[in-house]
Structures are given as C-alpha cells and as structure tokens.
User: Fold this.
Amino acid sequence: MEERTNKVHWERRFSGRVSYPRSGMFGLPSEKPHFVTHIMNLSETGIFMNTSEVFDLGTKVHLVIREKGRYIKVEGVVTRIIRKDSSNLFSSDCGMGLRFIRSSEELLRIYMEKTADASQPAPLSH
Assistant:
C-alpha cells in the first residue's frame, strides 16, 4: 500500500493509543529542547505530537512533557512524519510520531491508568 507523500511510516504500531493532550518542548539531543509541541496521544511505546517542525525518520529526539506542574523527560526516535502541505494546510494532524528509546516510569504509569480506565464500563446515570 502506497502512502501519500506527506505521510511516512517507518514502523508499525504495536500498542493501543490513548488521548494525552499535553504541552511539551522538544529538540535534538545536542541542544536544549526549544520547539513547542502539543502531545496528542500516548501509547506504551511512544507518542504522536503536533508540530510543524518535523525531523527525518530515525532522528533521535529529546522531549520534555509538562504533567501537573512537573516535567517528564523522554527520549525517542522519529518513526512517523506527517508534513503540512497544500492538502492539509489547516489540519491539526501534521507532526511526528516518536518511539520511546528511554521513557519514564511515570509516563508508563499514566498510560496504564488511562488504558485501565478505558476498559472499565461507564457508570450508570441516575
């Protein structure tokens, strides 16, 4: 199956995603993270973040996520790119996916809590 030119996939996803709208900063390992991003979703193995600044596939990226007044630092490699082009100028889904190289226990705990919550039946309304 051939992808549109603005979508590039490097690996297949192996774990489910959960919504995780958070702000963050990212950059190359050799520099202080300075690009602003909005995290869209989280999986056990990575994240997808909205940004117009995308790096090449395979690039190592440092990411700092703001979580309840604290900062979570993770390291990942770019596995998916969606570039802004004339067909998606106003789309919010341009950005890149990262596979974690080094994550945090806290981020894994957040993912596990969100997946456990999603598997629980909704409470009955009165």
